[in-house]
Amino acid sequence: AIQLTQSPSSLSASVGDRVTITCRASQGISRALAWYHQQPGKAPKLLIYDTSSSASSSESGVPSRFSGSGSGTDFTLTISSLLPEDFATYYCQQYYSYPCTFGGGTKVEIK
Amino acid sequence: EVQLVESGGGLVQPGGSTRLSCAASGFIFSSYAMSWVRQAPGKGLEWVSAISAIGSNAFYADSVQGRFTISRDNSKNTLHLQMNSLRGDDTAVYFCARDVGSDPFFGHWGQGTLVSVSS
Predict the structure, then answer these.
(1) Nearest by CB to B95, which of A43, A95, A98?
(2) What mean pLDDT comes out for the span B82-97?
(3) Which of A40, A53, B72, B86 has the fewest C-beta atoms under 10 angstroms from its C-beta?
(4) Is B104 close to A43, i.e. CB distance below 8 A?
(5) Is B103 on the interface with A (CB under 8 A)?
(6) What share of residues in chain A are helix, strand, coil (percent, to 5)?
(7) Do B37 and B23 form a contact (C-beta atoms < 8 A)?
(8) Rounded to 5 degrees, what are φ and ψ at A86?
(9) Which pLDDT tens digit goes with each residue over A82-105?
């Protein structure tokens, strides 16, 4: 199975900070990578798919402060300016091949 | 509005079995592949299993291969996960999730159902 390694596992940041989370795959996955965030006690929410495409829902789109980049084995999620609602845990997921796999998560905490 | 509602969780003894269900509404169920994703208490997400839109193909994580079986009833818009030979490390919240399109990433999730494996 393809392993995904996220870093850092946690970080402390302030409202308004720019934050970058990385996800490294154990083998090439082209651009088949998604990002989610999850608030405690809630289901994950899709933010980005195909490495850099913003998800949307019938209720609301994903804010433009979230962006993704990368290809092959190295990927990043960037939050350009943190808002209070962005303090959560973030996960990457590869869907290049089964079994799908998730990264270990990055917890973004308030400094 | 897409809705996914899981049921069937609870306390199960080690070695026991249980069956989870996910009732889907708000979309054409038979057009989408579906997955189960779990999250052990305080831990990260783990993809468990997926099934194609018409149920012809199923995929499993190594950790559940041979013990869990995914199935679907498109006439009843329902997804199932039959879980056998349960172990303590199967304790988790189990989410059903719907693919966004033709690739297995998940734009819609249920609220989850907790399965606790303990004597």
Answers:
(1) A43
(2) 98
(3) A40
(4) no
(5) yes
(6) 5, 50, 50
(7) no
(8) -85, -5
(9) 999 999 999 999 999 999 999 999
